[in-house]
């Protein structure tokens, strides 16, 4: 009996005995504290004219008695031409799986890039919002358009829509939207309205309405990712996806990210903002590890006038493990009833957003509008002491220039 072809599917393993037309999938692997190693095993055949299902069972991979019983049951259900073939097949499966499972990831010797060569920059899936292959996060209060933004990013990657009017540079990817808050009908409405608003061809997005907590459902999600060649996963939202545990416990966050890492693809995590009464510093809801383990984080703010059919959105970069902070981004969501339009926005033009920007940026925006202003006028406009304004103007001499008794911009950045 020849050895099977073996290949990984996430943390699951698939085996195929070509001559015997037998498939086996080893999944839901669990190392127990008492030394047992159990897994679910699904066996099928692709032999023509025969129903494909053979057996789906659970097996202690280290127990000889269990392996013998499995081989006997398989012989009764689906006899092979030669006696004891199933015993050999089961032994091959368990031995090869155990070897691969215990070896884990290989150790590599990593050398620095040669001094004469440029150091490659961290790649983006969507420049400048999503790093490729990393956990990215959008967080903000409810109703800030985070889910709409996530769905637009899914659409422009699926096509890909490279000449979009949003100033974004997407790579081609196959996204999966894991929805823990809404349902398929709501998702379909948003998808249809955004597709019309972007004026792009009808584009399907892989979608799953999720009921179980993320870590309890990770084996099935991992299989979906492998089966559909998914390379971009959206989790909406992290709070509900981890709601079976206390979100303030570090173990809840670390277990979530450990499960997410198994998918080996770009992820966008949608999270709500924590309500902190004593500190002005904002963060995603839950343990600090939800913030610490994500590689890139944008906070999303909104501005909307009462009765208006549009929402202005500001995305401010709060964390970056891949390099310096990324530029702020602005968008406008317009709801017409027949379509939902996402357009680019210069957030400096929205007064409500200015106070959320750095003092330097606020002064730049003011001088763009007024051309020149005195220190006292700048101080009143941004509500800061004159000494603070003098320090900023002095620190950024590449931006600001004295014009008689006033100050202006050297160049418009």
Structure description:
The chain has 413 residues and is of the alpha+beta class. The protein is 31% helix and 28% strand. It contains twelve helices and 20 strands. The protein has helices spanning 64-77, 85-103, 146-158, 184-198, 218-227, 238-241, 250-261, 288-293, 351-354, 359-370, 375-382, 386-395, and strands at residues 5-9, 12-17, 22-31, 37-45, 53-60, 124-127, 130-131, 135-140, 169-170, 175-179, 206-209, 232-236, 266-272, 296-303, 310-320, 329-335, 340-344, 372-373, 400-403, 406-409. The strands form four sheets. A nine-stranded mixed sheet has the order 11-10-12-13-8-14-15-16-17. It has a five-stranded antiparallel sheet with strand order 1-2-3-4-5. The longest helix has 19 residues, at 85-103. It is elongated. It starts with a strand and ends with a strand. 31% of the residues are buried.
């Amino acid at each position: 009996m020849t050895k099977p072809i073996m290949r990984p599917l996430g943390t699951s393993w698939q085996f195929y005995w070509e001559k015997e037309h037998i498939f086996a999938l080893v999944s839901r692997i669990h190392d127990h504290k008492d030394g047992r190693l159990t897994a679910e095993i699904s066996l099928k055949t692709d032999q023509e004219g025969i129903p494909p299902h053979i057996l789906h069972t659970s097996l202690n991979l280290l127990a000889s008695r269990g392996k013998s019983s499995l081989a006997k049951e398989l012989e009764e259900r689906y006899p092979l031409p030669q006696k004891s073939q199933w015993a050999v097949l089961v032994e091959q499966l368990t031995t090869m799986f155990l070897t691969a499972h215990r070896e884990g990831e290989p150790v590599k010797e990593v050398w620095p890039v040669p001094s004469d060569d440029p150091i490659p920059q961290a790649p983006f899936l969507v420049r400048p919002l999503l790093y490729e292959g990393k956990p990215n996060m959008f967080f903000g209060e409810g109703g800030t358009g985070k889910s709409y933004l996530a769905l637009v990013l899914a659409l422009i990657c699926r096509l890909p829509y490279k000449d979009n009017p949003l100033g974004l540079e997407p790579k081609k990817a196959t996204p999966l939207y894991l929805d823990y808050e809404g349902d398929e009908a709501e998702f379909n409405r948003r998808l249809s309205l955004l597709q019309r608003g972007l004026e792009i061809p009808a584009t399907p997005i892989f979608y799953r309405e999720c009921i179980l907590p993320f870590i309890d459902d990770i084996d099935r999600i991992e299989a979906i990712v492998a089966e559909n060649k998914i390379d971009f996963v959206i989790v909406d939202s992290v709070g509900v996806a981890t709601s079976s545990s206390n979100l303030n416990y570090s173990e809840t966050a670390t277990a979530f990210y450990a499960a997410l890492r198994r998918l080996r693809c770009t992820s966008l995590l949608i999270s709500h903002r924590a309500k902190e009464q004593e500190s002005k510093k904002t963060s995603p809801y839950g343990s600090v590890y939800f913030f610490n383990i994500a590689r890139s984080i944008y906070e999303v703010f909104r501005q909307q006038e009462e009765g208006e059919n549009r929402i202005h959105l500001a995305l401010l970069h709060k964390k970056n493990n891949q390099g310096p902070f990324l530029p702020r981004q602005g968008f406008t969501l317009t709801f017409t009833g027949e379509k939902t339009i996402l357009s680019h926005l210069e957030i400096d033009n929205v007064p409500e957003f200015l106070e959320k920007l750095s003092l330097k940026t606020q002064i730049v925006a003011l001088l763009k509008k007024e051309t020149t202003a005195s220190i006292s006028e700048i101080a009143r406009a941004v509500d800061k002491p004159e000494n603070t304004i003098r320090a900023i103007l002095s620190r950024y001499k590449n931006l600001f220039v004295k014009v008689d008794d006033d100050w202006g911009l050297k160049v418009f950045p």
